[in-house]
Amino acid sequence: MHERERHRIILSVVQERPVATIQDLMELTEASEATIRRDIAALHVQGRLRRVRGGAEALHPQQISPLAAKPFRISEGENTAKKRAIAREAVALCSEGDAIIINGGTTTFQMVHYLANRRLQVFTNSFAIAEHLVKHSKSQVMLPGGSVYRDQSIILSPFDNDVTRNFYARRMFMGAQGVGPLGVMEQDALIIQAEQKLINQADELVLLVDSTKFQRRSSLILCSLDRVSTLITDDAIPDQARAMIENAGIKLVVAATTGTEREEKSSSAA
Fold this sequence. Notes:
The protein is of the alpha/beta class.
């Protein structure tokens, strides 16, 4: 990863956490400890962050408590071809006029590219999804009330009296931090609170997760596997994960990524 890109990621992370540790930054940038320490030192000298023991912090922290989730613009570039393939299969489940909920996330965001010519009723807590659909689709778009978390591009409210409970959907489409035998996992308690409210407003829960999510874990469980109706993933799903999903009685949809990867390369070349 180029130095400029690492610096962009580091500056983004220090804005959303009280302290960005060296270990966190190493994982996000896939750089060595020595490289991260040099980057922090350089940004400290430039007056763009404050170097602290074991990491770095922002010079002007956000007033709203940050979420534990990774920033949208960082996650958006990860496993893009897989996410596109998964999103295409998700949109294939939708019929004209359907009322659906799309939870904020970088995999669910990829659905917008295949919804352009659809006419649906869409409820979403994603600022990015709402903005794209308003500009590039024929769908009716609804948003909940709450605070906008810019880094994750989502709208969250800790209160029960938002408009969420007034919307009924046939399906809810949702990503996740991880999936394991105990259920669907997320990183942040506020995100879980908001997602649980949304889940209650839909008949079916459709989970969109790329194959790397079966290796990831979190200490917070959003819901058990028996609440998931359909899981869409890519064709690199491990055999153990496939067996876990099928044994849980979940409909498994495996998206082929080969064509999507060619599509991504063609778009880049253009």
